[in-house]
Each structure stands twice: as C-alpha cells, then as structure tokens.
C-alpha cells in the first residue's frame, strides 16, 4: 500500500487523502487550479507526515478516551404477506447487528398495537442516551394517496408531519432512514439542521416495493469493499448512500427494467434532497451543501477512529466543515481565487498537523 495518495497531491498524508476522497469526488477538489495549488504546497513538517499503512483487524479493541454511546430506534411495520414479514425481520436483525457492532443501544418498535405512539415515546429516550448521532430506521410498507404519504404501522399510520414535529422536540444529530415505497414526501417534512434524512424514493408516486433498503445494509456492512469508497476501513452514511443507490441502479439494469425507485439524501435542511448521481457528479460545489454532514457520520467506526478522543474528532470535523465552506467559496470565486486557494491551503495544513498529532 503506498504511503501517499497522488490524487490529492504528493504532500498529503494517506489517511487525510482517504478521508477527503468523497469531498474530492463530489466537490471537484482536483480541478486544474486546485491540483496546481496542491502540487506547489511547500513540504513543511506538517505535510511530511508518513501515514500508517497497516490496517487493524476489526476484532482488535481500540479504546477511546471518551466513549460516545448513542441509540438506534428500529421500527418494523407489518409485512402483510409472509415474504415481507420474513424480509422485514431479516432487515431488522441486520440493523441490530450493525448497531451493536457500532456500540449503539437498540430500541426496537415491533408491529404491535399503537406503534406510532410507542415510537414517539422512544424518540426522547434515544436522545438522552448519548451525544453522537441518533438513528431512526423505518422498515415496512409505505403508501401515498396523491396528497399524503404514510408509513404503514400497526394502528394509526405514521405521517411525515407528525414525525417531524416529534423529532423537532429533541436536540442532537439524527440519521433518519425511510426505506419504504412512496417515502419521498417524508424528506421535505423531516429535513432540518443536524439531520440526515434518506428516503428510498424521490416521490410518493414511486409506489413499488423498494429494494434499496437491502443494498443500504450491505453497503454499511462492507467496510473493506465497494461500500468503503475512500478505503479508510469504515463506511460513512454518505458512502453507504452512494454505494446502495448504485447497486439499485445496477440491479434494475441487469434485469433490463426501468428503475421504480430513486433514493434521495438531504442533510443541509432545505428539504430538497439529491440523488447519489448528483452528489458524485462533477459539478460546482456551491450548488448544494448536501452530503457534508453525511460524510462525517459513521455507524461502525474503524479501530483507528475509535482510538481518537471525542475532542480530537470534534476538531477534525470542524476543520472538514471549514474545508467544505472554503471549497464552495473557491468554486464560486472569480477574481478572488488566490484568496480562496490560500484558505484551502491553510485548512489542509491544519488538518495535516491534526493527523500528525494523532499519530504521535
């Protein structure tokens, strides 16, 4: 394994280069101007960091100085038919396994009476369990009558406006997975600051049973395969979304069928959402901020990540937010490109110094 990743310039440590790979793909980080900037960066001590090339096996416990335990709420709606009952149970079991591997506490809302009310009671309990990202996973059927989308539950169905109101009552970062058919309208109602919302469809009219949920689970579990796009031994929400969306498209293409589902992601709170294709397209970064938060959330951290303190991770995430903002400024700059290039360079130097600190 090489010590450097030439994609981001000869002076960037491998671990930083890998961490920034999704930014690179989405934000056109290596356009002509940025590539020239990075190639001319001075070989300062902060950029002379030699990255650790060895990979630690998953079963090696890496102790964090500040444990960050959070919760996952799993809601399993009624299947209606035996094949769906079995499928939903398998998906719920997979989510439980992933959550436990990630150190999350699982709260499961099974298909019993008054599911919606039990979900509403569970939301503040999940909020109180930790300071990291909380997860809400909806497994089941969806419906849309032309005006209102719903998620089918035992008892009253779940509507997006009601769920959005309950989530707004609690603080903290949430990842909401609505993997049912006709789930698109949930995205606008649930979008908010510090919240990643993913729906299996882009509209209520995509009403066929969605296969996207299966591929999302596979991507989240695939820490050293196609799910791990930047090869840092962990899969971010952004990476899982992209990998799952690509797998869905490939499955329909292999069957020579027109795709009846197009997943959306929103994490900038505007409620519009974007597809994986748009997130990874070669486009100006200032067109959308979607993806920035999803890149920083990982369900199962690598052993290297677990070994970092909460304070170090917060500093790293803050710098990556600055980097995203500076990249957008650079993409939209005309006569001020020298200033934005200088800002990019300073942030990269600070990131490199931070990783050097972590390695010492």
Commentary on this structure:
- With 360 residues, the chain is of the alpha/beta class.
- The chain folds into two domains: 6-44 and 57-62 and 307-359; 71-296, Rossmann fold.
- 42% of the residues lie in helices and 10% in strands.
- It is built from 13 helices and eight strands.
- The chain has helices at residues 14-19, 21-27, 32-39, 82-101, 115-127, 160-168, 184-190, 212-221, 237-254, 276-279, 303-306, 310-332, 337-359, and strands spanning 71-76, 105-109, 134-139, 142-144, 149-151, 174-178, 195-199, 264-266.
- Strands 2-1-3-6-7-8 form a six-stranded mixed β-sheet, sandwiched between helices.
- β1 (71-76), α4 (82-101) and β2 form a beta-alpha-beta unit.
Tell me the layout of helices and strands:
Elements: H1 14-19, H2 21-27, H3 32-39, E1 71-76, H4 82-101, E2 105-109, H5 115-127, E3 134-139, E4 142-144, E5 149-151, H6 160-168, E6 174-178, H7 184-190, E7 195-199, H8 212-221, H9 237-254, E8 264-266, H10 276-279, H11 303-306, H12 310-332, H13 337-359
Parallel strand pairs: 1-2, 1-3, 3-6, 6-7
Antiparallel strand pairs: 4-5, 7-8
């Amino acid at each position: 394994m090489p010590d450097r990743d030439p994609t981001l310039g000869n002076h960037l440590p491998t671990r930083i280069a890998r961490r920034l790979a999704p930014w690179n793909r989405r934000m056109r980080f290596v356009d002509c101007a940025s590539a020239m900037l990075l190639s001319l960066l001075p070989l300062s001590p902060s950029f002379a960091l030699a990255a650790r090339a060895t990979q630690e096996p998953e079963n090696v416990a890496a102790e964090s100085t500040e444990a960050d335990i959070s919760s996952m709420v799993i809601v399993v709606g009624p299947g209606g038919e035996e094949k769906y009952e079995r499928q939903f149970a398998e998906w719920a079991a997979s989510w439980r396994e992933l959550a436990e591997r990630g150190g999350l506490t699982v709260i499961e809302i099974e298909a019993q009476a008054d599911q919606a009310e039990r979900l509403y009671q569970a939301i503040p309990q999940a909020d109180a369990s930790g300071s990291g990202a909380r997860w809400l996973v909806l497994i089941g059927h969806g419906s849309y009558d032309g005006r209102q989308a719903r998620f089918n539950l035992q008892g009253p169905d779940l509507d997006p406006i009601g769920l959005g109101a309950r989530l707004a009552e609690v603080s903290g970062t949430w990842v909401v997975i609505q993997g049912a058919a006709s789930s698109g309208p949930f995205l606008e109602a649930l979008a908010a600051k510090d919240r990643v919302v993913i729906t299996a469809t882009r509209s209520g009219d995509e009403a066929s049973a969605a296969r996207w949920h299966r591929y999302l689970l596979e991507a989240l579990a695939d820490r050293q395969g196609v799910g791990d796009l930047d090869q840092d031994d962990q899969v971010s929400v952004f990476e899982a979304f992209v990998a799952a969306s690509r797998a869905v498209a490939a499955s329909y293409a292999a069957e020579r069928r027109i795709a009846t589902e197009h997943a959306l992601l929103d994490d900038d709170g505007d409620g519009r959402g974007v597809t994986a294709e748009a997130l990874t397209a070669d486009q100006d970064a200032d067109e959308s901020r979607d993806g920035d938060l999803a890149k920083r959330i990982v369900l199962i951290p690598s052993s290297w990540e677990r070994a970092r303190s909460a304070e170090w991770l917060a500093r790293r995430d803050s710098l990556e937010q600055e980097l995203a903002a500076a990249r957008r400024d650079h993409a939209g700059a005309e006569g001020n490109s020298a200033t934005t290039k200088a800002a990019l360079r300073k942030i990269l130097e600070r990131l490199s110094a931070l990783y050097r600190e972590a390695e010492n």
